[in-house]
Amino acid sequence: MVITRFAPSPTGYLHIGGLRTALFNYLWAKRNGGKFLLRIEDTDRSRHNEEAVKAILEAFEWVGLESDDEVVYQSQRHEIYRKYIDQLLEEGKAYRCYMTKEELDKLREEQIARKERPRYDGRYRDFQGTPPEGIEPVIRIKAPLDGTIVVDDKIKGKIEFRVQDTLDDFIIARADGSPTYNFVVAIDDALMGVTDVIRGDDHLSNTPKQIVIYQALGFDIPNFYHVPMIHNEKGKKLSKRDGATDVMEYKREGYLPEALLNFLVRLGWSYGDKELFSLDEMIKLFDPKEINKSASIYNIEKLNWINREYINQKSSEELAQLLNISPTPVIELVKNRCSTLVQLEQEVKKIVERPTQYDSKSLKKHFKELNRELLKEFLEKIQNSNISCEDALSSILESRGVGMAKLAQPIRIALVGVAQSPSVVDIMKILGKDEVVFRIEKLLAEVQ
Fold first, then answer.
1. What distance in Å separates the CA atoms of residue 205 and residue 67, rounded to the nearest whole number?
2. Is 349 a catalytic residue?
3. How far apart are CA 194 and CA 188, in angstroms?
4. Which parts of the chain have pLDDT scores under 70?
C-alpha cells in the first residue's frame, strides 16, 4: 500500500507551497488506493503556536484534504523517540558527546581558517575515558566515515552525496534529551509506514541524514520525490507579497477551494494541454514522477482565470449559499464577470442595493443635457403607459435617431451608480418597473 504524509511545523500558518506539497501527497496516495496521513511536527515547543495548529487543520478541512487516520502529534511521542535513542546507544551506533559549545565554536573557527568545511571532528566517537563533570551530553549518531550516500530521487534522478562533504556525526538528541528534527522525521515516517515522501527540494539536504538513521535502525527507506520550489514571475523565491500567504486568506479573498487545488496541481505538473481538473481527474491522472525538474512560476492571472471558470460552473443557488445571501437572478447575470466570490458579492450588491452615490467620471461623460432629456422622456414613458422598459428604450432610440449609449448609460448610472454593468435591459427586467422608476427619479432629483 502506498502511504504518504504531510508534516507541517506549527510555527506559522499553512502557505500555498505547503498546500501544494500536501496535495501531491494526497493525490498519489489516492491514485494507488493508499493512505494520506497528516503529522504535526511540534517538538520545538519554543516555536510552537497553538493558533497555527488550528489554522493548519482548518485549511485542510476547507480544501477537503483530510487525513485517513488520526492526526499525529510529535509532541506526544517522546517516549517512542527515547526508546530508539537508547537502542542506538546500546548497539554502539550512537554515543554521548561532551563537547561544549565553546569547544565546538573554536573547532569551527580553526576549520574555517584552514578553509575546511566546518564539521564535528568525532572526538567522542570512541571515547572510553571519564566524562567531564558538569556537562550534559548530546547524543550523536555514528555516521559513515567515507563513501557516498545515494538518493534515488524519483523527480531529480540519482543524487550522490559524498560523506566527507556532507555528513558528520550529527546530533540526534540535545543535551536536554529532546530529539532533533531529522531523527524524529525518520522514526515517524518508518513507524507510520510511509512508503513515499513527497516534499519540497529544500529538504533534499536532510535526506542523507535521514537515510543514515533508517539504516542504523534497520528501517526500509521510502521513495523520495523532491519537488522544486514555487517562484514569482521574476524567478525569485515566492514572498508573501507574491501570494505565499496563509491558505485561509485565499478563502477570505473569495477563491473556491477546488479552484485553488486545480491551480496548485498545475504548478509543476501538467497533463497535455488540459487546464481544468476535478479532484477525481487529478487522482486518476497525477503521477509525481512527471513533476517538472525546474521551479514553477506563480501566476495570479491564471489563478483568477481558473477561479472564474469554477464560479461559472456553479448554479446561482450554490453561489448564493456560498455568499450566504438569498438566491437572486442577479447572480446568474453577473457571475461571468467575476474572478472571485468577493467580486461576485460586490457585483450583486451593486444591482440589488440602491446606489447611495454616483460615480463622478460616469456622470461627467454620460449625463449631459441630451442624456438628461432622454432619461426624463424614458421615465415619463414607463410611468404613464403599460409599455415595458425594454420597449420604451427601443422606441425612444428609434424616434430620436440616437445611439444606444445616449440613453442606456444614464439609465445604467441611475440603476447602479456607475457606467459599467451587465446589460441594462437585463437589469431592468430583474429590478422591475417600479424600482427602475424609483432609481431614475432619485438620480434626477440628486444630480442637477
1. 27
2. no
3. 8
4. 45-46, 48, 240, 243-244
